[in-house]
């Protein structure tokens, strides 16, 4: 069997101070040149995994292989400085006693053409003019680029980035992110990127690993993750969802408090199964002849569309709240009545509820 | 009016201090400089022949004695303090909590009490002599004196450097590792530069301490400027001779201060306040036995030996009925003074350190150096100036406890400021600027925003001042109200008469009393550090 570029096998990690495992028999394989995002809530173990890959933390069980060589297991432990895995910290960790130039040159050690290489990297990153500034004299975006340059100049086999954009202002965040990605794509870097921002993950990744409870819940392309979540956690965590409950009537129908909802694909659950399913806001279709009615509670106008919350009419129950998208060309306000239809888009959107 | 305003703004580079801040700094600096002006004017008024005679006879040897001792001790304590701080804060040696405490404890021994114990053991007719028939070492030789002084001053370096080491985020080490650098390379190129301000500042503290020390050197019969000045004045009642020697000492002190300012100028860095992850301890493996040997060596000579000696001789003293009810009064008197002093210097150190880093200007530099005068000016000299001024202008203060507190505060203010400043140097101006932008008043910002972040520095400075004041000798001798005996005064009087057995109990009391405030201040500092992180 051919090994992946970076292979994590059955990795388990427990801190001495805790009884629970942070990572539980975790598996992950990454191909060369891929940009993989570790996505999860804070405390899900994603930073721990990153630190283990770097060699800053040891793990209890399992193997880590880079380019078919074991870099860490029960018997072997390659120290961080020998792994050639670069990292960009969330706070950048630029050495305060060195200039931008000094920080980047630090990574080159005693190379002969250190000056040329550093200058070249500064130019590529657009940092040449501020090369003599100290970290506290740099803007957030500049600090981020210095940190990236410092990590990249050694041409690491894998580059790890721990929420590298979270300390940046929103206005420049997207710009810095796009520039960073462009550079990373150009040099075909293999990147593992940690974030808790799912929109960021969806937009930049080749693959996303959704991490929860010390395990990878799903590891797939952004398209698959969004459209074919393997479980309720992933479905709920990625993108906005409406969650509805009901009982499977036949392969194409679930009965709910809103009435019977049709499914476009056959539901792989038996009749009578109690099930939860998701309906994305964009899958709620406004239609004059719609079967369902509701009242707009509030709406957030974004120009091209409204992000709206409606209370759907439910017979002899409290109203059911749904998030929907309304085209920006419509003139709506709170209190307006709407008619709409709901359907289940995919069999991957229905999950049997456990009792 | 416009021109005056513009000039004023230019002086302060557009950031003029508020009236209160300026006044506090002005008053502190003014109070510090007055006694010196007196001493200097006395020296200037002295006849020229007097200068010539002194320069031909005493000055060169005094200069050499003082400088060589101060430099050797500063060097030795820096090596000791940095190695200890590094071993305890950055390696995987166990029992860090206890070691931190243990290596703060030698501070409870004023060098003159330490010297007393060494004389008891290694003196001409000391314990060693009676045990093995030889003193083994000459306790009054240059290197013995340097060793003894180092053993009781290195905690100043250790405390400052370890506080600074603890502030370094673990991310720097890891970032360095991921750049392919080894630990030693990271240590040399990142950590050492980051603790350099702390190292420089603490070695300067030691330098000044040794220059200004009177008790230990005179007890060990080593002649430096201070002891020479003391005997010139008290022994020969030669005020102008003492003033001339003092002037030279002050000039020397200014030179060192200028050097320090120059050294520190290019060495302070803003660390990202967001990154304060604790560093993973370095595994030192086979060097552990060596590290333990080093630690035990220092502990034995700075703590075990002097403490057992004091205990043993105090027990002996109690058996002989030397300790009486009067001792309680000495304790009370000592405490009144030192607690008052610590509060005054802690309160003052904050606005002065703040002014230095946030309102820099030529005026600030001058005022700040004046505030540091206490560390260059030996207590005996400051006391002389204070006595003169109070006698002439404030007679109602003469012989009061207040003047003793004021005098001690002046003497030890510098120590507290230095400590506050090295904390201040690590804090980004953005912090208090943010608070100002939120419309907070200056006092609120200073004590609610700046103080909590620099409090490790202010408190450890306060701890040092409290203990120092308790031990202070020459100034207390000069300024005390008649009959107001403190422990240190009692000890000195007994020891100078050669009654070591009478001196031991007072020494033990000073040592014990120093433990309590030290313990509470260290504890508070810890709580604050944890609170922030």
Provide an overview of this structure.
The complex is a heterodimer of chains A (355) and B (533). Chain A is α+β, with helices and mostly antiparallel strands and 355 residues long. Chain A has helices at residues 46-54, 80-83, 100-106, 114-124, 140-152, 170-186, 198-204, 222-227, 232-237, and strands spanning 6-14, 21-30, 35-39, 61-66, 69-72, 85-88, 158-162, 191-195, 207-212, 215-220, 242-250, 253-256, 259-263, 274-279, 284-286, 292-301, 305-312, 320-327, 337-344, 350-352. Helices cover 23% and strands 35% of the residues of chain A. Chain A has nine helices and 20 strands. Chain B has 25 helices and no strands. Chain B has a single domain (15-311, 320-532), classed as MetI-like (MetI-like fold), CATH 1.10.3720.10. Chain B starts with a helix and ends with a helix. Chain B has helices at 2-11, 19-45, 48-57, 59-90, 96-102, 111-122, 127-132, 142-151, 154-167, 170-178, 183-212, 215-219, 225-235, 239-265, 288-319, 326-358, 362-371, 373-376, 379-393, 401-424, 430-437, 442-471, 474-479, 487-496, 500-532. The chains are: A alpha+beta (355), B mainly alpha (533).
Rg of chain A from C-alpha positions? 25 Å
Detail the poorly predicted runs of chain B: none
Largest sheet, strands/sense/barrel of chain A: 10 strands, mixed
The CATH topology of chain B turns out to be MetI-like fold
Helices and strands of chain B: which structural class?
Answer: mainly alpha
Order of helices and strands of chain B: HHHHHHHHHHHHHHHHHHHHHHHHH
Kindly state the percentage of residues in helix of chain A. Answer: 10-25%
Terminal-residue CA separation of chain A: 40 Å
Strand content of chain A: 25-35%
Mean pLDDT of chain A: 88
Q: Compute the number of helices of chain A.
A: 9
Q: Using only CA atoms, what is the Rg of chain B?
A: 24 Å
Oligomer: heterodimer
Q: Quote the beta fraction of chain B.
A: under 5%
pLDDT < 50 runs, ≥5 residues of chain A: none
Number of domains of chain A: 2
Secondary-structure element order of chain A, as H and E?
Answer: EEEHEEHEHHHEHEHEEHHEEEEEEEEEE
Q: Based on the structure given, which CATH architecture of chain B is correct? A: Orthogonal Bundle
């Amino acid at each position: 069997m051919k090994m992946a570029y970076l292979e994590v096998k059955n990795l388990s990690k427990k801190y001495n101070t805790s009884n629970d495992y942070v990572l539980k028999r975790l598996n992950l394989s990454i191909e060369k040149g891929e940009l993989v995002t570790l996505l999860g809530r804070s405390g899900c173990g994603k930073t721990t995994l990153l630190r283990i890959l770097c060699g800053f933390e040891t793990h209890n069980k399992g193997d880590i292989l880079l380019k078919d060589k074991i870099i860490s297991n029960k018997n072997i432990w390659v120290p961080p400085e020998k792994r050639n895995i670069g990292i960009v910290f969330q706070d950048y960790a630029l050495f305060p006693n060195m200039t931008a130039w000094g920080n980047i040159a630090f990574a080159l050690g005693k190379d002969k053409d250190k000056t040329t290489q550093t200058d070249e990297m500064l130019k590529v990153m657009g940092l040449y003019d501020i090369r003599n500034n100290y970290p506290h004299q740099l803007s957030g975006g500049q600090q981020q680029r210095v940190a990236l340059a410092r990590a990249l100049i050694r041409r690491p086999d894998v580059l790890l980035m721990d929420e590298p954009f979270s300390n940046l202002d929103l206005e420049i965040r997207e710009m810095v992110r796009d520039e960073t990605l462009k550079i990373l794509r150009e040099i075909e870097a293999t990147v593992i990127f940690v974030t808790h921002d799912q929109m960021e993950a969806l937009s930049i990744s080749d693959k996303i690993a959704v991490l929860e409870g010390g395990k990878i819940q799903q590891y797939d392309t952004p398209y698959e993750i969004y459209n074919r979540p393997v479980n309720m956690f992933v479905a709920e965590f990625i993108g906005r969802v409406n969650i509805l409950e009901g009982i499977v009537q036949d392969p194409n129908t679930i009965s709910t408090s809103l009435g019977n909802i049709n499914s476009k694909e056959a539901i792989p659950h038996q009749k009578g199964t109690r099930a939860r399913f998701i309906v994305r806001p964009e899958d709620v279709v406004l239609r004059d002849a719609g079967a369902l009615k509701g009242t707009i509670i509030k709406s957030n106008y974004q120009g091209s569309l409204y992000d709206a919350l409606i209370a759907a009419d439910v017979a002899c129950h409290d109203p059911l709240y749904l998030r929907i998208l309304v085209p920006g060309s419509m003139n709506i306000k709170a209190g307006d009545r709407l008619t709409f239809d709901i359907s289940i888009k995919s069999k991957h959107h229905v999950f049997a509820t456990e009792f | 009016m416009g021109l005056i305003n513009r000039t004023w703004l230019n002086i302060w580079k557009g950031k003029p201090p508020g009236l209160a801040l300026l006044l506090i700094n002005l008053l502190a600096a003014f109070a510090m400089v007055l006694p010196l002006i007196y001493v200097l004017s006395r020296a200037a008024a002295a006849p020229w022949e007097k200068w010539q005679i002194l320069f031909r006879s005493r000055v060169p040897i005094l200069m050499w004695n003082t400088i060589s001792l101060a430099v050797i001790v500063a060097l030795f304590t820096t090596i000791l303090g940095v190695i200890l701080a590094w071993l305890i804060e950055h390696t995987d040696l166990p029992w860090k909590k206890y070691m931190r405490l243990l290596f703060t404890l030698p501070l409870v021994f004023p060098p003159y009490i330490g010297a007393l114990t060494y004389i008891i053991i290694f003196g001409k007719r000391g314990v060693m002599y009676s045990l093995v028939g030889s003193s083994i070492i000459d306790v009054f030789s240059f290197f013995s004196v340097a060793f003894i002084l180092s053993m009781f001053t290195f905690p100043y370096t250790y405390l400052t450097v370890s506080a600074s080491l603890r502030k370094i985020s673990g991310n720097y080490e890891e970032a360095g590792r991921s750049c392919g650098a080894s630990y030693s390379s990271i240590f040399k190129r990142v950590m050492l530069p980051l603790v350099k301000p702390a190292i420089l500042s603490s070695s300067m503290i030691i330098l000044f301490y040794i220059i200004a020390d009177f008790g230990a050197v005179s007890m060990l019969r080593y002649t430096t400027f201070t002891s020479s000045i003391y005997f010139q004045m008290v022994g020969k009642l030669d005020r102008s001779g003492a003033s001339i020697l003092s002037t030279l000492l002050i000039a020397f002190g200014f030179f060192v201060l200028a050097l320090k300012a120059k050294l520190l100028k290019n060495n302070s860095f803003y660390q990202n306040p967001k990154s304060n992850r604790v560093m993973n301890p370095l595994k030192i493996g086979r060097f552990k036995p060596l590290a333990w040997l080093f630690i035990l060596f220092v502990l034995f000579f700075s703590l075990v030996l002097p403490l057992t000696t004091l205990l043993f001789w105090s027990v002996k003293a109690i058996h002989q009925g030397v300790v009486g009810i009067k001792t309680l009064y000495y304790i009370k008197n000592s405490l009144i003074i030192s607690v008052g002093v610590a509060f005054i210097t802690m309160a003052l150190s904050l606005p002065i350190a703040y002014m230095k880093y946030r309102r820099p200007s030529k005026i600030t530099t001058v005022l700040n150096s004046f505030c540091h005068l206490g560390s260059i000016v030996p207590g005996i000299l400051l006391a002389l100036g204070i006595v003169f001024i109070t006698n002439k202008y404030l007679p109602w203060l003469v012989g009061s406890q207040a003047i003793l507190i004021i005098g001690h505060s002046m003497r030890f203010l510098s120590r507290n400021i230095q400590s506050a400043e090295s904390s201040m140097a690590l804090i980004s101006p953005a912090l208090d600027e943010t608070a100002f932008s939120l419309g907070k008043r200056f006092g609120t910002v200073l004590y609610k925003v700046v103080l909590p972040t620099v409090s490790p520095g202010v408190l450890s400075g306060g701890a040092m001042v409290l203990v120092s004041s308790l031990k202070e000798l020459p100034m207390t001798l000069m300024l005390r109200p008649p009959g107001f005996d403190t422990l240190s005064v009692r000890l000195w009087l007994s020891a100078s008469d050669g009654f070591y057995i009478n001196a031991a109990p007072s020494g033990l009391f000073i040592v014990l009393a120093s433990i309590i405030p030290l313990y509470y201040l260290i504890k508070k500092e810890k709580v604050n550090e944890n609170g922030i992180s």
